């Protein structure tokens, strides 16, 4: 009996979220990524930001990695982009998403307009 294992194509993926931090001295950013062997790193401008990461395996064999960074409110309010990069060395692929004060506010405004919701 010959068994053929099909190789399915796994593209790494990434999502970035802003953790509400009103009244706090720091702003938390959360990133999650999927892939075969994903690694996460955070960047602002051209510098890497230290982060904490957790790795879990999904039922489908893909690996999930999550990471959180905390930045000062002063740094967050500069409007600089904070980029989460998920790379998969096994696949030689890299994906990233950015978030900033400006992009986060734009998403809230679009959500409010689309859903008729108002946050007080």
Question: Any chance you could write out the topology, listing elements then pairs?
Answer:
Blueprint lengths: L12 E7 L6 E10 L2 E7 L2 E3 L2 E6 L5 E10 H4 L5 E7 L4 E7 L1 H15 L5
Antiparallel strand pairs: 1-2, 2-6, 3-4, 3-7, 5-6, 7-8
What descriptive keywords fit this protein?
Immunoglobulin-like, four-stranded antiparallel β-sheet, alpha+beta, 120 residues, 2 helices
| Sequence stretches where pLDDT stays below 50 over 5 or more residues | 1-8, 107-120
Order of helices and strands: EEEEEEHEEH
Number of strands: 8
Task: Give the CATH topology.
Answer: Immunoglobulin-like
Proportion of strand residues = over 45%
Descriptive notes:
By secondary structure, the chain is an alpha+beta fold. The protein has one domain: Immunoglobulins (Immunoglobulin-like, Sandwich). Helices cover 16% and strands 48% of the residues. It contains 2 helices and 8 strands, in the order E-E-E-E-E-E-H-E-E-H. The protein has helices at 73-76, 101-115; strands spanning 13-19, 26-35, 38-44, 47-49, 52-57, 63-72, 82-88, 93-99. A 4-stranded antiparallel β-sheet has the order 1-2-6-5. A 4-stranded antiparallel β-sheet has the order 4-3-7-8. Residues 12-100 form the Ig-like domain. This is Ig-like domain-containing protein. Keywords: Immunoglobulin domain.
């Amino acid at each position: 009996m010959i068994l053929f294992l099909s190789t399915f194509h796994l593209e790494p993926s990434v999502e970035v979220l802003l953790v509400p931090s009103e009244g706090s001295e720091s702003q938390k950013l959360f990133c999650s990524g999927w892939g075969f062997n994903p690694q996460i790193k955070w960047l602002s401008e051209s510098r890497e930001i230290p982060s904490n990461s957790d790795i879990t395996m999904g039922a489908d064999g893909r690996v999930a990695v999550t990471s959180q960074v905390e930045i000062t409110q002063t740094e967050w309010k500069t409007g600089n982009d904070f980029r989460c990069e998920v790379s998969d060395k096994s696949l030689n692929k890299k994906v990233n998403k950015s978030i900033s004060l400006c992009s986060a506010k734009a998403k809230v405004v679009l959500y409010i307009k689309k859903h008729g919701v108002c946050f007080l």
